[in-house]
Write a structure and sequence with these properties.
about 250 residues; alpha/beta; Rossmann fold; five-stranded mixed β-sheet; two-stranded parallel ribbon
Length: about 250
């Protein structure tokens, strides 16, 4: 009571003799606390003792319980509000931290695959096709060539960077692009892969790079089958007009 700095304290009891610590024979154990009780009461600015009946105390119990419930509910509402506020703040900080982070490095295929280091385009079915460019800038090139690798190779095995000199590339303005076929290198796999589906991938690659209506397609080894499929597709109104490459068995790609 002293620590709460109460200005006036009223003690209610059913028997005033309980506080008669000096009364002989009454509550002898209180005599040991005589000095302590008097000291404590002397520190209160104002206090008094009132004798009340048991019925009066019973009437005050509901008020006390109601007050207790009210304080409990207030504390509960306050705790809920603090919890919600804390969750909102933590969530906002987490979102902000994630927003300022650089985009994660892509991976090949499913989650946990190797990191992607090459340029890729996104295809119609959300797969990605990796590609590598070489030669004259494609916007200014005169000859544009798409290279299709064979069975046991990838886009890095294009022969053009090895056999075309820089002088010839600049003189003829030659641009080449090779790509990893689906499931090879850094291109996503295609469960429904076929020579025709890869031809469609090539068409999307050409459109995505803005190669225009005139370019060449060169296929090596098994890449020749895909070249032949591109040739047959060009007869059906495709933008591909000039196609070159050798193929193993063009009868199997119809």
């Amino acid at each position: 009571m002293i620590s709460h700095r109460l200005a006036r304290v009223v003690f209610e009891t059913e028997d005033a003799e309980l506080f008669a610590v000096k009364r002989p024979g009454a509550w002898p154990s209180y005599q040991d606390y005589d000095v302590e009780i008097k000291t404590g009461l002397s520190n209160l600015p104002e206090w008094e003792l009132e004798v009340v009946s048991r019925n009066s105390n019973k009437r005050t119990e509901p008020l006390h319980e109601a007050s207790t419930r009210s304080h409990t509910q207030e504390r509960s509402s306050s705790d809920i509000f603090k919890t919600i506020l804390l969750v909102v703040i933590v969530g906002s900080l987490a979102w902000f931290y994630k927003a300022i982070q650089p985009p994660p490095t892509g991976t090949v295929g499913s989650t946990g695959g190797a990191s992607v280091t090459s340029s890729r385009i996104k295809l119609r079915d959300r797969r990605h096709l990796a590609y590598k460019e070489f030669g004259f800038p494609r916007d200014e090139a005169k000859f544009k060539i798409i290279y299709i690798h064979g069975f046991d190779s990838c886009m890095l095995d294009s022969p053009f960077p090895q056999f075309l000199s820089q002088a010839l590339v600049e003189e003829l303005r030659i641009y080449t692009v090779s790509f990893d076929r689906p499931g090879y290198g850094e291109s996503d796999p295609d469960p429904n892969r076929s020579p025709r589906s890869i031809a469609l991938d090539i068409e999307e690659l050409a459109d995505g790079l803005g190669l225009g209506p005139n370019f060449y397609v060169v296929g090596l080894s098994m890449g020749g089958e895909i070249t032949w499929t591109c040739l047959m597709k060009s007869f059906q109104g495709s933008k591909h007009t000039r196609l070159f490459g050798r193929c193993n068995s063009y009868s199997s790609v119809r």
